[in-house]
Amino acid sequence: MSPLLSFFSSIDPRPKPGVPLKVQLSQIDREMRVPIVLFVVSAILWLQAGTVFALIASIKLHNPEFLGNVEWLTFGRARSAHLNAMAFGWGNNAIFAVSLWIMARLCKVSVKHGGLLVVAGAFWNVGVTAGVIGILTGGLTSVEWLEMPPQVAPLLAISFILVAVWGVIMFRYRALGHVYVSQWYILGALFWFPWLYVIAQTMILWLPARGTVQAITNWWFGHNVLGLWLTPMGLASIYYFLPKVLGRPIHSYYLSVLGFWSLALFYNWAGVHHLIGGPIPVWLVSAGIVGSIMMVIPVVVTAINHHMTAAGNWRAVWCSPTLRFIVFGGMSYTLASLAGSAMALRDINVITHFTQFTVGHAHHGVYAFFTMTMFGGIYFMMPRILNREWPSAALIRTHFWCAAIGITIMLVVLHAGGWIQGEMMTALDADGKPKYAFLEIVTALVPWLFSRSISGMLLSIGHLAFLVNFFWMLAGRKGDQDGPTLLADPNEEDVR
Amino acid sequence: MGQWNGYLIFIAALGCVFFFSAIGALYWAVRHGEFKKLEKTSRQIFDEEEPEGVHTDFFPGEADKMRRKLARSRKPEKAGHHTQD
Amino acid sequence: MKNLPLLFMGIFFCLAFSFSGLILSSMIQYGHLEPVTEFVNHPDTGEQIPGAFIEIGDKLVQGVNQPDEQTFPIESVGLAQQGKQTYINMGCLYCHSQQVRRKGFGADYERGWGDRQTVPRDYILQQRVLLGTSRTGPDLMSIGMRQPSAEWHYLHLYNPQFTSPGSIMPPFRFLFETRKIGDAPSPDALKIPDGFPAEKPPAGYEIVPTDRGRELVAYLLSLKLNYELPESRFSE
């Protein structure tokens, strides 16, 4: 056999025929254990780092002298470090872990050469670390969602592709012919993200496009990081875990297919609504508004589907840690997306644009929806990967309540504060002069920003509970076999 | 204005290409039975280890209690609505 | 759906469609924009008419940029260009936008942020376009006209409370240095207001901007919207 051929046969992740399913599944979990634990550990550490940066940035907004003389933590840098630590540190690592595991489960295959995945994951984290340090030390690019110095981009792009390739290999060798909707979302997102990233990096930082074409590219990219990367992965998790935990298939598979293609078609166009009223051609803005409004279709379709699946099973939802987070995430997806469509309407946008309302909306999507679904996925996945139970139900409850209440407070204050800010900004008196001086608006905003810091502290407590529970689990002994969330341990003899 | 025509034609052509390839793909997919047994796919997430109808996630240490509770509540009190948040 | 290439094609086309529709087409539409002069010499009368194009009959006649004529927008050079780097790496963009919306949409005009809306041509000479999406602070498209005093900017950057009490802008004291007064006080030494005794330098010392501070202020002073473009006039 030629070396090339033997390489290809060595990546074939299909289990040997005749092995019982139970053994297959635990074999999958065992082979993915090291890479997935690496991803989850990195994700949780990034989550803590991102939280610290978030608190610093948030406190600075109502108390500018806080750490005021530390150049590398000035507001613009701290908030960018927060965003990048969360999106590319926490978000991507969590996605790598959860989506690859869902993919493996659905394809009923595992990863061979998991070591390469570990190397790629390690490089990803080195890249993000270098990027965040770069932001803090003066490499900040001031391109939203692309803040890391361009020097780290090749490292990130290559390690991302190395990670994503395993998802595609698993898909290629899947055991079952038909493809479940979660697999579509994961596969789509694994392709979309590198394209978006490379195009944006090139057209904004390496070979900058002329004038405001940069801004259009920027928001095409920035919004699609949410729409074609975080959202599909969040939805893939909901579509998998919701029916899986309830033991009940998704209400309508047709609707989920419709939801996928309408999302793929419309979400791409929505980003331009960040430039409404800006120096770009009007027809582009209109295209962005149309795309944003059309997003109602996939959102409503998905919401109906999820609701009908969970309906009548609320008690079962409530007694599953996974589903508490997942269902919270699903509901937030519906609300955040409908709010997003509304915010693209010119009459509403003129108030909300440039205010904290937008910041609230971003947290609605990225935290209340995406992050919550990833929490849920990790709560389901880790016991199976590690073959042991979460050590503390109380810590899970603490995490859930702190996250749920914290983010709810944050959303309320940012949306309310942002709306007031926008109303004051645009209010004119009878003579056509601005009703409020700029500093009056700032003063009015401060109490809301202060409340946001309080809600952020609540979130931090939740994240700490998550961290403690996870490392406790990692350090703990092997659980007993009859726990509810565990698969039985395979007999070593059977695997051979 | 004259200078706008270029990109309008471009977009229109692009839209047509997109539209017709979508139609073509749909036609192809239907012809090749891609949409057959679609609903069956939704059951693909279950297997004999974690079959349909079985709850697979509980708070640690509460599984047996909750499983019994759920089994009891299923018939008489369907759709307990106390959990909205 | 079980066909990987087909699925892949669909996934690819969706993204390619929006890329072409939003980005490629806007490049085609206005990727060729050039700076213009403010006036066109009427070919018959020689009269100077504002704008890059004039209509003669039903024909559009474009003005020709003469070598000695100032074209707009103006490219920022020298100190201002370097100051923009500081503006970028401090993340000023996250609170300050640089765009003016048309009169009647929002209150940009009424707030005095610009006498006309900004249009794509205003940004064509910028290596990095900093439109911004947040106005936690005011828009800066024309800050060089609203606050033409370098001294004001130095004080404001050193501690925003000096000039704007209640502001939540962070202080940028690290763009300044406290040093011993030489033979004579420096001309740009900060005159700390009397209400802030704690901020005053010790006797015999003065606070002066560093190079980065000077560059940043040069950049802020260079932000002006004092010219018209054919597609955006002050009257609009």
Name the structural class of chain A: mainly alpha
Shape of chain B: elongated
Please report the distance between the alpha carbons of the first and last residues of chain A: 24 Å
Following the backbone from N to C, one meets helices and strands of chain A in this order, namely: HHHHHHHHHHHHHHHHH
Q: How large is the count of helical segments of chain B?
A: 3
Integer average pLDDT of chain A: 91
Helix content of chain B: 40-55%
Oligomer: heterotrimer
**CATH top level label of chain A:** Mainly Alpha
Spatial separation of the terminal alpha carbons of chain B: 55 Å
The helix/strand series of chain B, from N terminus to C terminus, equals HHH
Report on the architecture of this protein.
The complex is a heterotrimer of chains A (496), B (85) and C (236). By secondary structure, chain A is mainly alpha-helical. Chain A is built from 17 helices and no strands. Chain A is globular and about 85 Å long. Chain B is mostly helical and 85 residues long. Chain B has a domain at 1-35. The radius of gyration of chain B is 26 Å and the shape is elongated. The mean pLDDT of chain C is 88. Chain C has helices spanning 4-30, 78-89, 143-146, 150-158, 160-163, 211-222, and strands at residues 39-41, 48-50, 53-56, 59-62, 176-180, 205-209. Chain C contains six helices and six strands, in the order αββββααααββα. Chains in contact: A-B, A-C, B-C. The interface between A and C is large, with 89 and 73 residues.
Which helices and strands appear, and what pairs or packs with what?
The complex is a heterotrimer of chains A (496), B (85) and C (236).
Chain A (H helix, E strand, L loop, with lengths): L2 H9 L9 H42 L12 H33 L6 H26 L13 H20 L8 H26 L6 H34 L6 H18 L11 H13 L1 H15 L3 H5 L2 H23 L2 H7 L3 H31 L6 H34 L11 H38 L16 H4 L1
Helix pairs in contact in A: 2-3, 2-4, 2-14, 2-16, 3-4, 3-5, 3-7, 3-14, 4-5, 5-6, 6-7, 6-8, 7-8, 7-12, 7-14, 8-9, 8-10, 10-12, 12-14, 12-15, 14-15, 15-16
Chain B lengths: L4 H27 L6 H4 L21 H12 L11
Chain C lengths: L3 H27 L8 E3 L6 E3 L2 E4 L2 E4 L15 H12 L53 H4 L3 H9 L1 H4 L12 E5 L24 E5 L1 H12 L14
Antiparallel strand pairs in C: 1-2, 3-4, 5-6
Helix pairs in contact in C: 2-6, 4-6
